[in-house]
């Protein structure tokens, strides 16, 4: 799905008109319409603001994919995105990945002859990443939670545990 299509879905679910979104992003209503119809690309300098404004996991995934291309998670449009179906699929994908990871040894030096095993492990792991990203997006929508706030809270947890360094305030903001 293109960023424009996902944007239209996210905007409609949020009850925001093209005019209102355009005003918030300093774009015309017709530019928003062109983006949603796939005739124009969302300006990159506006994508971040639109992602914060719409606060929708699927929009965030589509925005990342727009910038990164095939190196990120697409919004799946050929699957059942009901919360119970996504939950069951997540459990299935997690089990498959755990089995594949358990069957793959990483103790010894990497053996180029075992690339197929490693690729299988990586594909199963990517399946889990895609599935769990959808689970988070669906649950945020269904339960009225903020996608952005969830990631902010997760970042704080990583900082508290020392897994990542705390963001320092930009120069001049102190």
From TrEMBL:
Residues 8-43 form the HTH cro/C1-type domain. SMART domains: HTH_XRE (SM00530). PROSITE patterns: HTH_CROC1. InterPro entries: Cro/C1-type_HTH, Lambda_DNA-bd_dom_sf. Gene3D superfamilies: lambda repressor-like DNA-binding domains. SUPFAM superfamilies: lambda repressor-like DNA-binding domains (SSF47413). One of its GO terms (molecular function) is DNA binding. Residues 1-20 are annotated as: Disordered. This is HTH cro/C1-type domain-containing protein. It comes from Paludifilum halophilum. The lineage of its organism: Bacteria, Bacillati, Bacillota, Bacilli, Bacillales.
